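I hope you will forgive my troubling you with a question about protein structure. The record follows directly beneath this note:
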Amino acid sequence: MPPLTIAITIGDPSGIGPEVVAKALTDPSLVSAANWIVVGDAEALNAASPGWTSPASTVSVDDLAQLAGHDLEIGRLSPDSGRAALAYIRHATQLCLDGRAQAMVTAPVNKEAVTLTGATFTGHTEYIAELCHVDAPRMLLVNDRLRVLHVTTHIALREACGISSDAVLRTIEIGDDALERLGLDQRRIAVCGLNPHAGEHGLFGSEDAEIIAPAVETARSSGIEVTGPLPADTLFVQALRGAYDLVVPIYHDQGHIPMKLLDFEHTVNVSLGLPIVRTSVDHGTAFDIAGQNKADPSSMKAAMKLAVQLAARV
């Protein structure tokens, strides 16, 4: 099998993305695991890691020169950096769609910086889905202790409360397929309730019984090993103790909070429902420490490692 080629974006060049990419690429085990194409501006890489050069023949840089004629403002919100970050995403996505890369790994972008450019942007996952002409992608968070796959992500909580049975069912189906791709022998899925105590038999809302439960039953009847809706406050404890292989939270914070509490440094974001493999760090641009050589590359390294594993299974 030919060596895998994986694209890595540097994210918002004003943030810690260039630094964590440069640091991750000093790991010999990662450098040798694939051919890596760093997508970004060489200027930003050199600003983050003075004197940075490719550490091996397996690492190349697609210098898009998006910052040419602009001042790189490290640690500050900048529309120029937001515009550059979008260009990096588009380029890496196209590499994957064209078959020149088998996966992409993304460093963090800043939604506010992108919005300053006039673009409508709710997140990496949704933007890449738009580039791939795909509706309703899903966000999977993975670490060594837990996996969660959200029904909804970057929308207002009041909108998340308006979920449909079809959305819940599709998430369960995507999750079952993802567990198989991850090589798990068991694929036990549990779905969170939306309301406290999963509605307590209708005392705290009807969504759990009327929307979530029918989706779970339909998935179960198709052969998927799934249960729910279950109270979220105890479900995550049960999953940590080995009862389930995947938890399906209904909204963003219901899944993100436990994952970041468990292992903030090593949690990886995986986009599902796309025609390409995409993994990402699960942290932000951290402007407060950008340019100070304080950024921890652990999440980037974990994202790169998982991208290799997933791309090898496609």
Remarks:
- The chain has two domains: 1-134+274-314, 138-269.
- The first strand starts at residue 5 and ends at 9.
- The CA atoms of residues 169 and 248 lie 11 Å apart.
- Residues 138-269 form a domain with the Isopropylmalate Dehydrogenase fold (CATH 3.40.718.10).
